[in-house]
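Hi team, as promised in this morning's meeting, here are the two structures we talked about. I've kept the exact order from the run log so nobody has to guess. The first one is mostly here for context; it's the second one we should focus on when we meet again. Sequence first, then the predicted structure tokens.
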Amino acid sequence: MRVIRNFSDITDMLRLSHGRKRVAVACPADSHTEYVVERALREGIADFTLVCAGTCAPEFARLAGQYPDRTDVIIVPTPDDTARRAVEIVRQGEADVLMKGTLNTDNLLHAVLNKEHGLLEPGRILSHVTATFIPAYGKMLVFADAAVIPRPTLEQFEAILGYATGLSRRLGVERPAVALVNFTEKVNEKFPHSIYYEELKQRAAEGRYGNVCLGGPMDVKTALDTESGRIKGITSPVVGNADVLIFPNIESGNVFYKTITLFASAETAGMLCGTNAPVVVASRADSCESKYYSLAMACV
């Protein structure tokens, strides 16, 4: 499989694919969503079903007229109705990806998590996975969870690990190198996640997670910088070469996310995993580029 080295590779791959994914957008009524939809249509990476509240905004009506064979418009009474209808469209197999427009994330998740009509099957764990390209690092990096699970249990860590390594493999990494992130290399019962890390490594050694290499606990710098590992005397093959970062809690993951986008010129793309189809719920502060890449990644 081709190794995806940056986000341009993702969009190139989608353009060359023989079948476009269809995206159901709940409540498209803002300039960022307009940018994503128009660019995706222009570059030929996706088709859309736009579920609008009350009326279709002029910008989206224009796009529907410009791309009539690739854009459907559905009008429902309220923003909450857009969430329920878009989820229904995905649930029925009429769209492959769900995307949030101006709708509040909580309102969309209420429809996604509906026990009877939602997209999360009983027993599945909802999580958020982010892919990023940091120019100074030079290759795609996947990390989780920066948005959904506050303090992962062992079961939740397993799910997060599965989603993150699954995405890494979709990006062409045959054997993802996974760094289990902590502020120190020591295992300490005061920090339960470090105990969970040891169990994850044991299970990985038993082959429960497929072809993967787990290392840690280790800090982010050690995971991404070979010299830091050399100075500390850490010889794990993950050191300086991580494809995946698993964070111990939502605070550390979210701080990493916001820091790299502000100070490291990082491009990012994120989506919800665990549902029957990818769900794109970009942050309000995310750039248009980030939201476009999130959609592209979900289509992959």
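And here is the second protein, the one for discussion:
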Amino acid sequence: MTRRNSSTVADAPEADWDARAADFDDEPDHGLRDPRVRAAWADRLRGWLPGHPADVLDLGCGTGSLSLLAAEQGHRVTGVDRSPAMARRARAKLAGHGARIVCGDAAAPPLAPRCCDVVLVRHVLWALPDPASVLRRWRGLLRPGGRFVLVEGVWGTLAPVGVPAARLTAHLAPLTREVRLERLSDDPLLWGKDVDDERYAVVAVV
């Protein structure tokens, strides 16, 4: 799942996300239908994900666009989304790629500890009521030497919502041994347009 209004994902019923599934991919950075936008995200993922086949857990995967890119790059992908309609679309999108899509809460995935090498999350943490606790829970899903790949930001002017980069890196500091911040606001190809708000990725190795 990705950006919405200031109500939290935890408060949003599955039916709300189900209703959005049909047109969710219309946003350039959701559906990645524009080949230039798709290529921009694929290039970023190559730099963020391991250079060898890895178990990638895409939490709040939505319709599975990033999951598909990761699978196409040779990774073994599990996606989790709480919306049955989003999960169905993700399964269809990833058919034939050996990916597994689970319908469940991204904040508390129904998965075993140390099940993955990468926790990949885009635009989910900002909408959760206690990101620090969620990060600690996600940390338990990573194997030794694994990594977080977190894409977040701050959106809006009158009533901005989001997670500032400084806050997220502070949450990660006690959980990881290496944190790298990459600013994304100045790359319009990622979003299909120019943006002037804060958008970034954090890659943190445990």
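Starting points for discussion:
Residues 35-48 form the longest helix (14 residues).
Residues 185 and 196 are 7 Å apart (CA to CA).
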